[in-house]
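ZP: hey, is the zinc ion complex queued? I don't see it on the tracker
AM: it wasn't, my bad. submitting now with these inputs:
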Amino acid sequence: MEDEQSSQVKLLGEALPASRSMVRYLSGSGYVIRISPDGAVRRMCETVETIGIVASSSKPAKLVQQFCVYPDARRILFRTTHRAAVILKDGCRVDLRVVSDTRYAPVLRYHTGSTGHNLALEAYARRQGTQVRESGIIDPITGRQVAFAEEHEIFEALNLPYIEPELREDRGEIQAAAMGTLPDLVRYRDIRGDLHVHTRWSDGAHSITECADTAAGMGFDYIAICDHSRSMQFPHGLDASAICDQIREIEHLNRGRADIRILSGIEAGIDATGNLDIVHPVLQDLDVVIASVHSSFRMSREEMTGRITSAMHCDAVDIIGHPTGRILGKRPGCSLDFGQVLKTALDTGVSLEINAHPRRLDLPDSLCREAKGSGVIFTIGSDAHRKEHLWFTELGVAVARRGWLEIHEVANTLTGDDLIRLFKR
Ligand SMILES: [Zn+2]
Ligand SMILES: [Zn+2]
């Protein structure tokens, strides 16, 4: 039986839209001054147990009442004048905390966490001769508690630059802030396109035009159509002749539109020996070739590393797709000598994908961080199989940010021409 006090663990790709719906709903009540998700959602963690929301209001009880009658709420776990928790129909738990507006910034900072980050910041503050708490900072001279209007002022009071929520994981961010070496993180608005989209040509649900229309509506400059190549796993994938047909179709579509550039591509499988499941000169005519493992995941570390690095040595390959093969909640990543993968990526100029599908988020943020500064270039691909999935790119940006990546490390920030140049190296 489901434990009603604890919620089901949700993917960020589910929790983030749920938190936004709730924030929109509460903002419409007229009782909100400021409002934001906190905790794991604000830090954009790959999975989320509880959606936390902090709001400031001059009518807290009314806001709590509004929260408790949220149409998607299935059950109220508890409620007081300033706090409440509900379980949504999909099993997600949402906790609301309402404070006065003067307390909003410190409370938001505190409940954004993580616990490790908060403890490290508290230790740092103590070394500075002061104390940081949920309610603000204790002034070392007067001993009085100081509240702050904005979150960045709390960091400034500790002589630190603002630390983005995605970095607050106690992975060295406070030391980097103190030394002035925090990364200038890639932002969502830096992303010019999606580099991994499936259409009806293989196992996607929509046409190239429908996907391109959606991408153009999101403000993207380009979209790479990377349907599956034909294989045992994808019998409806493209063979060489279908790839030729699709290239012609894309050329035709590009002539008809100025709003977005459609790049031709393929997601080829990497067989157990490290060869692509399609070997044909037509691959050279494509703008983007992704090579991905879709079978035989149980291999020794040496075999799997050899398999992926062999694929990187194929001339046509531009990107290794979902490099670890993990599926969140279902399959761990395969065993890889990641140092060797990075070295080969540098030697061959092949990029590593941050696959932004909510179940994948692969590379994981920890490996992005490991690779950061190595010179390896990353690509972000939604792996959309429906046009409604294109927004997943935002989750990929979150992974990149949690991995400390900067604009020059992410290929999607390039113009279409520069991107083609990178892949035609
Ligand atoms: Zn794939
Ligand atoms: Zn794919």
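AM: back. The chain has three domains: 10-99, 103-179, 188-423.
ZP: great, adding it to the tracker
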